[in-house]
Amino acid sequence: MKVVRCAEPGKLVLEEQQAPGSPPEGWALVNVAYVGICGTDYHIFEGRHPYLAYPRVMGHEFSGTIAAINAPAGLSVGQQVLINPYLACGNCSACRHGKPNCCIAIEVLGVHRDGAMSEQILVPAQNLISAVGLSPVEAATVEFLAIGAHAVRRSMAGPGNRTLVIGAGPIGLGVALFARIARQNVTVMDVNAERLAFAAKQGFLVIDGSKGSIIETIAERTAKTGFDVVFDATGNSRSMQSAFAYVAHGGVMVMVSVVQDDITFSDPEFHKREMMLIGSRNATQADFQHVIASIRDGKIPTDQLVTHRTTLRDSPRDIAIWALQKSGLIKAVIDVAASG
Known about the structure:
The protein is α/β, with parallel strands linked by helices. 29% of the residues lie in helices and 28% in strands. It has two domains: 2-132 and 301-335, Quinone Oxidoreductase, Chain A, domain 1, CATH 3.90.180; 146-279, NAD(P)-binding Rossmann-like Domain (Rossmann fold, 3-Layer(aba) Sandwich), CATH 3.40.50.720.
């Protein structure tokens, strides 16, 4: 079968390798349909991922059909599925408390072990999720949208809250969409005019973070009180540190993105506001199901979010291009079944 492997930073190669064969007990063999290309994949390509050993087959956002299954999973051969790519131990404290998304020994397909940029892949049957009612492309968007849905759920914020989402990339847009579904009043901030225009087209209020004093702008937008909820989805340590000042007294800040740097903040300001600071990592089964239901109900404009497409054969070239040239790019997908 064909696979695309990141041999080393900056080098993607299309290769032939032996197909996986029959699944062992508890596992399923999936014919991959579509793979979403994530910011994590670009970081792997660029050599900026802290938890990765090369070579690696990337790809953790994907859909497909079951080719074979060796488990009583309530699913059958030929059924369309999407995959929860987080492989948890099931035994640690986080897993026992229903939080396998932050399992102490978590393995993510496409990061800690080979992923879905291939024609077939073996996955644990318990990680299969029925994609009935979704197109194969829609099913491949569920994982990245679940990151946003999880962050909104982590915030514990209710309807009517004034919410600021910093970063209008795919993850930030996912956060904004699910904050709106939760009936929050959402503003999106970014320094990229093109991304702000896209967010505005989706009906969000926007703030251009590249112009003027952000503190003054936020004061004007919030009657000098700040936002009840602030999500940072930038992956930028300076942005994350600055965001503390945007939170209202009694408010919440959720760090969706992760950086290798230390994040510092003023303890007196933190206590004065009695802020809650929350980390949000990956997603859970409940988040996946929430996203699936929202797509089925027409609440998520997946046709607008998926802006670029490629094939498995062309993906080494296109990923290298898109890593540098992101104009117009929101979410790119690989059509694995396509010829070419």
